[in-house]
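To illustrate the input format used throughout this study, we show a single complete record. The first block contains the structure-token representation of the backbone; no residue identities are included at this stage. The design step must infer an amino acid for every position from geometry alone.
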């Protein structure tokens, strides 16, 4: 899996949770998945359609009703579902809301070591400065990353490093991305 696919997957709030539930064997029917994820109906349907568009899910032919289709993982979806399961298993239930933010997982995937803002930004070409700042700030508030200002350089520059749950998620995502 490459970083661009990871960015696309996490652009919908409930995509990781849907992939995780399918990995766990929850039936691919909308009602079962909706109940298992705890998502709102509109956000859930958007995430489900997004996963179909990415080619990670497909309609299960011969199963389900035309208005209530059943879905299954594609071969590419199986790998993504495995990552989603490992990541969500590593994070406590009360902290999983941070993983529903678009850039949390891609940013953590780039933080295998301490990096300055600019290097993180170059690793994720489609992220804006504002989105990266917001993502780093929200993870810093939850102590998923540590911001350290390197005073020996001129001008001083902050370095960001994954810690605690962030380090666990970073290593899982980095292993899948081959970093």
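Output of the design step:
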């Amino acid at each position: 899996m490459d970083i661009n696919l990871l960015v696309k997957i996490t652009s919908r709030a409930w995509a990781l949770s849907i992939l995780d539930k399918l990995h766990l064997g929850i039936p691919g029917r909308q009602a079962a998945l909706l109940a298992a994820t705890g998502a709102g109906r509109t956000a859930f349907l958007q995430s489900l359609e997004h996963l179909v568009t990415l080619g990670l899910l497909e309609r299960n032919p011969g199963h389900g009703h035309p208005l209530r289709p059943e879905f299954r993982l594609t071969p590419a979806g199986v790998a993504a579902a495995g990552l989603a399961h490992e990541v969500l298993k590593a994070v406590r239930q009360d902290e999983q809301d941070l993983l529903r933010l678009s850039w949390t997982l891609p940013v953590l995937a780039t933080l295998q070591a301490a990096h300055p803002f600019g290097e993180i930004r170059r690793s994720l070409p489609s992220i804006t400065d504002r989105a990266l700042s917001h993502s780093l700030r929200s993870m810093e508030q939850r102590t998923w990353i540590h911001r350290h200002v390197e005073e020996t350089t001129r001008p001083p520059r902050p370095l960001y490093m994954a810690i605690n749950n962030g380090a666990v998620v970073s290593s899982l995502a980095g292993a899948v991305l081959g970093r």
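Structural context for interpreting the output: Residues 3-90 form a domain with the Arc Repressor Mutant, subunit A fold (CATH 1.10.10.10). The chain has a mean pLDDT of 90.
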